[in-house]
Amino acid sequence: MEENWREKLEKAPLSRIMEVAYENQVLIPAFNVAYLPMVEAIMEALRETETFALLEVSRPDITRFGAKSFQAVKEEYERFGDLAFSRLHQDHVPVIDEEGEKVDWKSLIEEALSLGYHSVMIDGSRLPLDENIRVTRETVMISHRHGVCVEGELGSVLGHEKGPLPPYEELFQSGQGFTSPEDAQRFVQETGVDWLSVAIGNIHGAITGAAKDQKKVEARLNIQHLQQIARVTGIPLVLHGGSGIKREYVLEAIKNGITKINIGTEIRQAYERGLGENSNIEEAQKETKEKVKELITSYYEIEGSVHILSKKL
Ligand code: G3H
Ligand code: ZN
Q1: Ligand 1 within 6 A of 263 CB?
Q2: At the top level of CATH, which class does the domain 2-312 belong to?
Q3: Burial degree of 276 (CB within 10 A; 0-12, 13-18, 19+)
């Protein structure tokens, strides 16, 4: 084992770590922090399994669950975070949100930049293509000045919106909302975005009503469609709605350009289960840590990824 692996990972820019992960097909999971004490639990799991991951927080984590604010998560990350195993990502800054409302996206991005987040995501997926390109390009310009990576989204990863989804099989078979490879090529060229979130059969876990506590449908992925996107983009691709995707599809996706997978619902539900009726935070952290470890060791089988990554840095 390399002696200076820790130092190499601590010092490497996230853009480089992601590039190395993409080239070597090493998965970087991104765990959503829906409650502040999850930061400590996720970090413990990463240290114990010697795995590199992102900790991320989205607007719904703050408005609908217990992440409080981008600043609160940053402060928690300062207490428990460790750059040898992780970086901090601002997830989903929508231009139009899940309720169809316009969002002051620029000030949210600027907030993350001034707080020192390592990467941000601008989500213009509810906009027409030209508008999405314009907003994403602007985000890239602002963020790259700070050395911060940008993730964009093209296509519709449904599930956060109110109301019932069409039956999953119907969605999958019709390819409705899937990212178009032609649009993806143009989007990447014209925006200069670092990573691209794609829709290939993945859906988000629900964040409202009774459905938010239920098990997600087991999604599949159209791997051929992913291959077409990967061929014309050449940058790390991102899979949102990571909870509950059938394992064999996830493993194929990693071999075909997916570098980052976002996992929200599964670990939030583990935390809430542990919390129970008596708000037992310790138990909630224990459940979260166990779930993260299980995903790393038996689902993705990426234990020890810090050593693979550091060798190639
Ligand atoms: O951005 C967050 C993720 O896409 C989480 O999706 O809650 O279905 O795991 P999930
Ligand atoms: Zn997402």
Answers
A1: yes
A2: alpha beta
A3: exposed
